[in-house]
Automatic annotation (TrEMBL):
Biological process according to GO: cell septum assembly
Record organism: Paraflavisolibacter caeni
UniProt keyword annotation of Protein transport present: no
Name by which UniProt lists this protein: Cell division protein FtsQ
Ranges of biased composition (kind: Basic residues): 340-352
Keywords: Cell cycle, Cell division, Cell membrane, Membrane, Transmembrane, Transmembrane helix
Record-linked InterPro entries: FtsQ
Start-end of Basic and acidic residues biased regions: 303-319, 326-339
Lineage: Bacteria, Pseudomonadati, Bacteroidota, Chitinophagia, Chitinophagales
Region of interest (Disordered), ranges: 297-352
Length: 352
């Protein structure tokens, strides 16, 4: 063996020995979230890392740390969407975790509950923190979901994703009830009415019609005048009246709305609701069921991508029954005086 060959082998051995001396000096954990709070803590992540390395991570040789395996262990947690691990030049282990964001809490009929994210993934409840998200009730309690149950969960996801993106509706809708026929009813924060949307399809169009109704109808009649607002019919809002609306209720209504407007939760309705007078709020509507059709021009028809925030609400003409006069009413009794018939009188000749 030549001197050059021996020198090369010595360098390899020295390099390998130096690599063996590189040990994990520190662990830096970063959490990426899009909400107001973190649902996974650094302590939770550290415990997963310790469990994957037999509680021996610091001062452990880098060659004995399987980063891919640790990433997989972290992503097994349903609250962790993605995990990336790497070492820098100073032998510091960087752990970057992206957590899942809950968009709804679903309650089953047996009382159990869970969260779902925008992909529809089920996530268990957390002990230390709770999420302020819309609540869905009456979900199936079966441990193993059927195909119909999966479709229902997907509809829940559709509604929850829409509410998560729309600030106003996220503030206005407090609860979503799943009915026996697997249709949905929304329970609002303001108002004692029920909002029937049926299936989750076209949820954006349905609630857009409802916003029109809020701004142009309820701002005048009062938000508690109707017991049910039905959005299941295309292009319509069917409102079912529940009774008289007192002026006292209208005053309290305006106070409640004013408080929400201060917090910026109902800015979309500010103009129309502030202009509603107490007299118009207390106005009575004689019919017990009113059918409204919202005329909303689509983007394709208008050639514009701008959304009309004040679409026109057209009230269907009210059919009024006009009483038709009867035959007797039409007859006009006229009595003309009978003309006297002049008869010739007999003239007797004079006696001489």
């Amino acid at each position: 063996m030549t001197i050059i060959g021996c020198g090369f082998i010595s360098l390899l051995v020295a390099a390998n020995s130096k690599e063996q001396q590189h040990k994990c000096k520190e662990v830096s954990i970063s959490i990426i979230g899009t909400g107001e709070k973190y649902y996974i803590g650094k302590t939770d992540i550290s415990e997963i890392l310790k469990a994957g390395t037999n509680d021996r991570l610091i001062n452990r040789p880098l060659t004995q740390i399987n980063l891919a395996r640790l990433e997989s262990l972290l992503e097994d947690n349903p609250w962790i969407k993605d995990a990336e691990l790497y070492f820098d030049s100073r032998s510091v282990l960087h752990v970057i975790v992206t957590e899942r964001q809950p968009i709804a809490r679903v309650f089953a009929k047996n009382g159990n509950s869970f969260y779902i994210d925008s992909s529809g993934l089920r996530m268990p409840l957390l002990k230390k923190v709770s999420a302020r998200v819309p609540v869905f009730t009456n979900f199936v309690a079966a441990k193993k979901m059927s195909a119909k149950d999966s479709i229902l969960l997907n509809e829940i996801k559709q509604i929850a994703v829409f509410l998560d993106k729309e600030t106003f509706w996220n503030s206005q809708i407090a609860q979503v009830d799943i009915m026996e026929d697997r249709k949905f009813e929304l329970i609002p924060v303001i108002g004692s009415h029920i909002i029937r949307i049926g299936k989750a399809e076209f949820i954006d169009q349905k609630l857009r019609r409802l916003l029109v109704f809020y701004k142009q109808v309820l701002s005048k009649t009062g938000i508690d005048k109707y017991s049910v607002l039905d959005l299941q019919y295309e292009g319509q809002v069917v409102a079912i009246q529940k009774g008289a609306f007192s002026s006292v209720d209208s005053v309290q209504l305006k106070k409640n709305i004013a408080e929400l407007l201060k917090t910026g939760q109902l800015m979309h309705l500010n103009d129309s609701l502030q202009q509603a007078s107490l007299r118009s709020i207390a106005q009575r509507v004689d019919s017990t069921s009113i059918n409204y059709a919202a005329t909303i021009e689509s983007e394709e028809d208008s050639g514009s991508t701008h959304h009309d925030i004040n679409p026109v609400l057209k009230k269907e003409p009210v059919k009024t029954k006009i009483k038709t006069p009867s035959v007797e009413d039409k007859k006009v009794k006229t009595s003309e005086p009978k003309k006297e018939i002049k008869r010739p009188k007999a003239v007797m000749p004079k006696r001489g």
